[in-house]
Amino acid sequence: MQGVIKSYDPASRVGVVTDDVTRAEHELAPNALEGSIFRMVRQGQRVIFDLDERGLATRLRLGSEVDLGTPDWITAGGETA
Q1: Element (H or E) spanning 49, and its range?
Q2: Are 80 and 19 in contact (CB under 8 A)?
Q3: pLDDT-derived band of residue 39, with 50, 70 and 90 as boundaries?
Q4: Which residues of 17-56 are buried (b: 16+ CB within 10 A; e: fewer)?
Q5: DSSP letter at 39?
Q6: CB 16 within 8 A of CB 23
């Protein structure tokens, strides 16, 4: 999944990422940055992430600015379904 970092505290390593498509918020797993190129992330940063069995965001990678297309929950007239 791709999303945007909503918040991140480098001291505690606690953070939240918002999914681009569903707008769901997922807490970062304690090890979300381990093995990635990131030492920390900043608010508004685009990332690609996976969800673990507890629903926590993990395996953060560089996100893309490429348009992912219009989400299914938005109708052609711009109204939300």
Answers
A1: strand 46-51
A2: no
A3: confident
A4: bebbeeeeebebbeebbeebebeebeeebbbebebeeeeb
A5: S
A6: no
Q: How far apart are CA 15 and CA 6, in angstroms?
A: 7
Structure tokens at 47: 């990332």
The pLDDT > 70 percentage for the chain reads: 78
Looking at residue 64, what DSSP letter applies? -
Nearest by Cα to 3 from 30, 54, 22, 35? 22
Mind listing the pLDDT tens digit for each residue in 44-65?
A: 889 999 999 999 999 999 877 6
CB 68 within 8 A of CB 23: no
Residue 8: count other Cβ atoms within 10 Å of its Cβ.
20
Cα gap 74→81, rounded to integer Å: 6
The pLDDT, as a whole number, for residue 70 is: 47
